[in-house]
Amino acid sequence: MNEPTTEGEETIILPTINTPRMPHAPQSRELVKTDTPARPDLPHATFGGYQRDAVDAYLIQLEDALQDARQHAQELTATVNDLHTQHALMEQQVENAREDSRINTARIAELAQERDQARHDAQNSIAAMAEEQQAFVNSCRKRGQQLMDKAQTEYDAKLKQAGIDAQHTIQDAKEEAESILASAKHTSQNILDAAKQKSEAIDQRGTQIIEQAKQTAANMIADAQKQQDDIRHECAQQVADAQQETEHYQQLRDHILGELNDIATRLNQLPRTAAHPSKQ
């Protein structure tokens, strides 16, 4: 509040600079406010007061220091924003890696299902071939029995006329039946062995594919997690450094504004008649 003016004396009140409190630097788009308090309107003494040029030069230095601090704070804000962008990008990469892991897991399940289906088909194929071979063997046996029966019938019919010829016929029929049975058994065993080898190869290949897919997914997740941890650590360190430097400039600004207040207070404490002498 201004004091009243008396005759022969003019009262001069210097403005007091209010020091705004700077908020704690957040991890957001703006670390430091850009508003600057108005330059105090200091009175100019005509004689016996302060030196105007020196005070104005000091005020200009303080304003330049404040401008530099504000510009550096804006650069720190841009740096923190870039760090946030990098962090968001890494989060997206980690999410993509997790999605790839889920896809690989689904693919592993599909491969396991295909392996089980192939194993089931191979078992069914082996069973079907075994049934076919058994039917073939039974048919051969039946055919051999029929040949033997026929030979025996012919033998009985011709026994009286040609006993030796009948005996040869029976022997030939037996040898033919045994040859047919041996061939059938050999063919059946070859088919069974081939089917077993095919089933084992399918099972082994499916197991290899599943193990490779699991290892690939585990490596991708481990790499993505390591990259995320590195980026988080770097972001946290840079944000902490930016906050520390911002607090330093805030303290510098408070100190400068405090000095301005001290100057204004000292000027207010000068003799009130210094700037305008009393009329005689």
TrEMBL record:
Bias (Basic and acidic residues) ranges: 30-42
Coiled-coil ranges (or none): 59-128
Keyword Coiled coil: yes
Region called Disordered, residue ranges: 16-47
Keywords, comma-separated and alphabetical: Coiled coil
Protein name: Cell division protein
Organism taxonomic ancestry: Bacteria, Bacillati, Actinomycetota, Actinomycetes, Bifidobacteriales
